[in-house]
Each structure stands twice: as C-alpha cells, then as structure tokens.
Specification:
This protein is an alpha+beta fold and 311 residues long. The chain has eleven helices and ten strands. α3 packs parallel to α7 and α9 (241-248) crosses α10 (250-261). Bound molecules: biliverdine IX alpha (BLA).
Length: 311
Amino acid sequence: NPPVLISTSPKKINFTLRRRSKSFLYRVSAVFYKEFAESALEETRKRIVLEPSHLQEKYSSMTGLDGKTELQMLAFKSSKIRLLRSMVIENETMQVFDFAGFMEPEYDTPIFCANFFTSANVNIVVLDLNPLHQLTDRTDYQDKYYNKIMSIYHKYAETFPWGGKLTGESIKFFSPLVMWTRFSSSQEKHKALFSAFLEYYQAWLEMTIQVREEMEPSQVIANCEAQHKYLTWRAQKDPGHGLLRRLVGEAKAKEMLRDFLFNGVDELGTKTFIDYFPEYQTEDGTVNDKRSIIGKSYETRPWDLTGQFIS
Ligand code: BLA
C-alpha cells in the first residue's frame, strides 16, 4: 500500500517487513506432530481396543534442560501390539516426531516406523513399515506384507524423492515401501506428509488386524530375536541420539532410549550389540562409537519399481 509506505519511517518499514517475513516463515514451516499422533490413535481406536501401556505412568511429558523444549510421550498396547508409542519434541527452532509400533512376538507383522525431524527449513523423514525379517532371504515375507501395497509408495514417490546417501547399515532395516526424504518446509509438503503418514499407518494397522498368531514355537522365537536385534540396533545407533542427549542429558537420554523408545531391548533377548553386529567390536572389546562402519551409501533408491532389491 504505497500511501502508507510514504508516510512511514524507513525504520518502521524495516520492522514491518521483518515481522511479516518472520510470520510468513513461521506459517509455512508450522507442522503439528502432536496432531499426527492424535490422528493415528483416533484411527486405531476405531478398529481395535487400545489400553494404556505401563510406560505411560513413567513417561508423559517433560521439559528439556534448556527450559524451553517440550517432550511429549504417549504409550499404548493392545492384545496383539506389544507397544505403540509416540514422542514429540518441540521448541522454537525444531520439531521431532518419533512414532513406532511393535508387535508381540507371536506375530511377524513389520514394525511401524515414522521418524520426522523438522528444523528451521529442512525436514528429514523416514516413514516405513520396517521388515521384521530380512527381505533378501525371505521372499515369502515380502510377498506376505509388501507386494500388495507398493501403490502407497508410488503415490508419494514424486512428492518425496529419495533423500540421498544414508548410513549404509540402515538400508537392511528398511523395506521397499520406505519413504526416505529431505525437503524444505512448505504447507503443501507438510500436508502431504500428514496424508502419507496416515496412509502408511492405516496399512500397518490393517496388517496387525489381519495377522494370525504364530503357532510354531521356533517361529515365535525367530520373531522375538528379530525384534530384539532391531531394538538393539536402534537403541545403540539411532541418528537422533546426539540431539536427545543435548536436550535431556546423557543419563536421561539413555534411559529414554532403552526403556521407552526402544523398550524391549533389555527384556526380549540377552544377546548384546556386539553379538548381532560384531563388525563394531573394537580391539578392547567395546562397541565402536562410530555410527557406521560401511559409511554413507545408496545415492539412489536401491529397489526397482516392483520393490525388488537392486543395490
Ligand atoms: C538423520 N535419521 C537421520 C537419517 C536417517 C534417520 C536415515 C540420515 C542420517 C543417516 O544417514 O543416518 C532415521 N535411520 C533412521 C531410522 C532408522 C535408521 C528411522 O536406521 C530406522 C532403522 N531423528 C529421530 C529423532 C531425532 C532425530 C527422535 O528420529 C532427534 C531426537 C534427529 N535424525 C535426526 C537428526 C538427523 C537425523 C538431527 C540429522 C543428523 C544426521 O544426519 O546425523
């Protein structure tokens, strides 16, 4: 509006512009992960009975060491789902969403995995139904859970392209359905992310409803060990650890990782990280601090359009 600009001092114009661009930035980057969690839980309650998990008493909400960061934790279970838990972290500059679902060992359903990290302008996203069993040596598992729903991946592939090189070890925890992407914030992208999240979640929820209890004891043991290996990896090497340590301190971060986020790591098995991942053993027998032995790999998506691993 030119007349207003003419009658306003340069200082004031500057101030107005700064405020405008700040509120503009804020508006385009706002993403509300608590609503993601609430929507998923609402969908769940339409289909199955959710009970509070014993973890909810111990973990609900807390404030970070900076006095400004809020952490919100939710935890549920059902007759088949051992743990359905959510963590949302929010402060003025970033938001984190970590939502996961783990089955009881009698079921071989994949692990639901949504890990979204949003800072001023960048979003780092992993959304997947992580396979419980290695797909490269279990084509029956890929058939059972993934081949029929690859269209969900294709629907979002253009909006959320492959995020580039990542820790090489991570790829074996991902399925051909995985959405691994980085993007700068916009309302459209956050809206699409919300849709993708709910669609992946619905697919997982449906699997948990359809799955039949495993009657073969050896298979239950195999499911239990596979879940334990997954939890052991993530409790030790997840990329979010550094940030969590800075936010809540070393001791609290460790407790949250082992008891809340990757609960089961101390109960579902007795094997150690080195037992599962011996390549991380150092000369004195301790676990190598490095996040990765392989290093960053997979510049492009290592699955073809049908979901076959092509490396
Ligand atoms: C980055 N998070 C990443 C990356 C991946 C994941 C692949 C890219 C860096 C890399 O190549 O390792 C996510 N990796 C996963 C997931 C699995 C895996 C889900 O192997 C499952 C098997 N992210 C969180 C939480 C925080 C977080 C809770 O999930 C913070 C509390 C932060 N993730 C975070 C940050 C980065 C990141 C800050 C960028 C820093 C980095 O690249 O190391």
